[in-house]
Amino acid sequence: LAGVREDLGPARVVVVASRSHRLSPALPEGPLESLPTERMLEPSWPSLVPVLRDLRLYGLSKLCNVLFARELARRWGPDVLAVSLHPGSSISTSGGGESAALVKLWMRLASPFTKSVAQGASTAVFAAVAAGLPNGAYLSDCTVSHDVHPDAEDPGKAAALWD
């Protein structure tokens, strides 16, 4: 990216994260060469229900997306605007097999609280074209959001993840 960035001039990087990044366990202090994901979960919930464990691991991956965007903004700004975003929750028609009935029930119950595909894309489009966004911002519902995991505010953790 560095060579392309120099050739093209100002650029924008939009990283799709998720509000679920707030479900992540706290990141360990120090170097993050290899995130010890299983050990990170144990102190919180020793006998974690698999679906909850998976949600926390998903949250960890999305927290890393937020941190990546913030560190990219710090290292490459001001010529590169880097933001991360929560696209919103939307209903997927994927799923089936043995759980098809459960998927249909979930879709019916959750639909009043979710976004259409177009609504879900709106924050990503906003992030790609809006003027005046702060570098490193986290966006939700087409606006800058400060409702982030505490580690997302830690420049040291963003740098450690990058390194």
TrEMBL record:
The keyword Phosphoprotein does not apply. Coiled coil: none annotated. InterPro entries: NAD(P)-bd_dom_sf (IPR036291). Transmembrane segments: none annotated. GO terms for molecular function: oxidoreductase activity. The keyword Oxidoreductase applies. Keywords: Oxidoreductase. Belongs to the short-chain dehydrogenases/reductases (SDR) family. PANTHER family: NAD(P)-BINDING ROSSMANN-FOLD SUPERFAMILY PROTEIN, RETINOL DEHYDROGENASE. This is Protochlorophyllide reductase. The lineage of its organism: Eukaryota, Sar, Alveolata, Dinophyceae, Gonyaulacales.
